[in-house]
Amino acid sequence: MAQDIHTTLHVRIKEGKIEEFKRLVEEMGKAVENNESGAKRYQFYLNDNETQCVLNESYVSLEAVLNHLKSTAFLTTFPKIFNICKIERFEVFVDIHEWKLIKVLLMKALAQMGGVNYHFLTGFSR
């Protein structure tokens, strides 16, 4: 049985861009919440001095991830976000069987962003 696909994206916000960053991620988060039923979690976390942010995402399936990557918000708002921050790390957590399906799709993007992939070893989720 397929498990959810989880990702974390770590970015460093460019100096003087925090207010614009906050506005854009708020816009992005609302668009995902309102238009992507396959997104289970889409949460942004700032460090205390508001120079770094982590995006924690979970999707119900590979199809939900692909829908996200084709969404209007991803294609229009996400590029604006990346103009004002630098990706430090991108991680994908997925069941090994799902990983086989998405590996080809994500490996190029992961490599460009300095990504690290993790496959499921053992454990459970309730």
Short description:
The chain is α+β, with helices and mostly antiparallel strands and 126 residues long.
Write up this protein.
This protein is an alpha+beta fold. It has one domain: Alpha-Beta Plaits. The protein is built from four helices and five strands. It has a five-stranded mixed β-sheet. A hairpin with a 5-residue loop joins strand 2 and strand 3. The radius of gyration is 15 Å and the shape is globular. The model has no long low-confidence stretch (mean pLDDT 83).
Mean pLDDT score: 83
Task: Give me the CATH fold name.
Answer: Alpha-Beta Plaits
Number of DSSP-assigned strands:
5
Task: Characterize the main sheet.
Answer: 5 strands, mixed
Q: Uncertain regions: pLDDT < 50 for 5+ in a row?
A: none
Q: What is the 3D form?
A: globular
Looking at the overall shape, the CATH architecture is 2-Layer Sandwich
The CATH class is identified as Alpha Beta
> In which range does the helix fraction lie?
40-55%
Give the amount of beta strand, in percent.
25-35%
Number of domains: 1
Spatially, the strands of the biggest sheet line up as 2-3-1-4-5
Helical segment tally? 4
Topology:
Blueprint: E1 5-13, H1 18-35, E2 39-46, E3 52-59, H2 62-69, H3 72-83, E4 85-94, H4 96-112, E5 116-119
Parallel strand pairs: 4-5
Antiparallel strand pairs: 1-3, 1-4, 2-3
